[in-house]
Write a structure and sequence with these properties.
Shape: globular
Largest sheet: 8 strands, mixed
CATH class of the domain at 55-199 and 287-330: Alpha Beta
Order of helices and strands: EHEHHEHEHEEHEHHEEEEEHEEH
Structural class: alpha/beta
Oligomer: single chain
Strand content: 25-35%
Number of helices: 10
Radius of gyration: 20 Å
Length: 335
């Protein structure tokens, strides 16, 4: 008789529709207009992103996965024991090498798409039946604290943030997010984070504008979500997708461009889009190792180890919490 696998527990802390409407109104009042990147990840958006990660132009996922598989034993030795807390878990496939290497691991997955999170946790239990798994549907950027749950009590918290998702945030926002991680992980928490590094403009633009058209479909799905969840009247056929490298900011900008002068209703308001006006869906900033560590130090994180692929396309950093006051004094030349 086949033993039944344990079922992962799920906690739903997804922002309410009223909060989403407020964020949309705030984002559409900005110049240029931009919405939080997590709006892209409803069920369909999460499915499309998983497909993007399998495209030949998008090498980040395969490079990072290979790096984690090759160095998992060394990473596990450096991190020690504890509960692995993954921010923006998605399909939760990159964590498997770490769960195989860590001693008596437990796993907590944070993600914005409840359907995708539920399936990812179920798949993870299939692969790792002996690992306790908890899923938390939430916007981790604004979460006040992790839930009081047995998996999170009396264990060191080991943060995991792969995929170079830090690049979706501006410099000040990224510092704020790294401080947020420190708060959620608590004193003594560590953070393992993947960072995509600069490379040729041709490779970067191709990675975010794949020939299969999945990146465009991913961005345009945002409009479908706004129509469905917030009563929007967007005509996706009236917008086109653009991904371009901005050298002055060291980032790719992804945007939906209005094809013509038009009015749109969403989140209880009426909005005017001029012809060629962009609605930014997300950014992806690229950092070399020194630039990233300088950013991390502003948030009170100190480097412990770094692993990189042979080509230097991507690096994975293990950080530990430092004394923020001392670190900031050193940055400003006061100590």
């Amino acid at each position: 008789m086949t033993a039944l696998l344990p079922q992962p527990e799920l906690i739903d802390l997804h922002p309410a529709p009223a909060d989403m409407a407020r964020l949309v109104r705030e984002g559409l009042q900005r110049q240029p207009r931009q919405l939080p990147a997590w709006f892209l990840y409803d069920e369909e958006g999460s499915r499309l992103f998983d497909a993007i990660c399998r495209q030949p132009e998008y090498t980040l996922t395969v490079t990072e996965t290979a790096l984690l598989e090759a160095w998992a034993p060394a990473i596990a030795r450096a991190m020690g024991s504890g509960v692995l807390v993954e921010f923006g878990a998605g399909s939760a496939r990159k964590v498997s090498p770490l769960l195989n290497a860590l001693a008596q691991p437990a796993y907590v997955a944070l993600d914005i798409s409840s359907t995708h999170l539920n399936q990812a946790c179920r798949d993870l239990v299939q692969r790792h039946p002996d690992v306790p798994v908890l899923g938390i549907c939430c916007d981790y950027t604004s979460l006040q604290r992790l839930p009081d749950h047995p998996l999170l009590r009396d264990r060191p918290r080991l943060g995991f943030f792969p995929g170079s998702s830090l690049g979706n945030f501006t410099g000040p926002e990224a510092v704020g997010l790294l401080k947020q991680f420190a708060r959620l992980l608590g004193p003594g928490g560590q953070l393992l984070i993947g960072i995509d590094q600069p490379k040729s403009v041709q490779r970067l633009e191709a990675a975010y504008n794949d020939r299969a058209g999945l990146s465009a479909a991913f961005a345009l799905n945002l409009l479908h979500r706004l129509n469905r969840d917030l009563g929007g009247s967007f005509d996706p056929a009236s917008f086109r997708y653009r991904a371009s490298w901005q050298s002055e900011h060291q980032r790719i900008e992804m945007a939906l461009i209005s094809d013509h002068d038009q009015w749109v209703n969403v989140a209880g308001c009426r909005w005017h889009f001029e012809a060629e006006e962009p609605l930014i869906t997300e950014h992806s900033v690229k950092y070399n190792a020194d630039a990233f560590l300088a950013l991390a130090s502003k948030a009170g994180w100190a480097p412990r180890h770094r692993w990189s692929d042979p080509a230097g396309d991507l690096s994975v950093h293990l950080l530990e919490q430092a004394d923020l006051e001392t670190t900031e004094a050193r940055i400003h030349g006061q100590g």
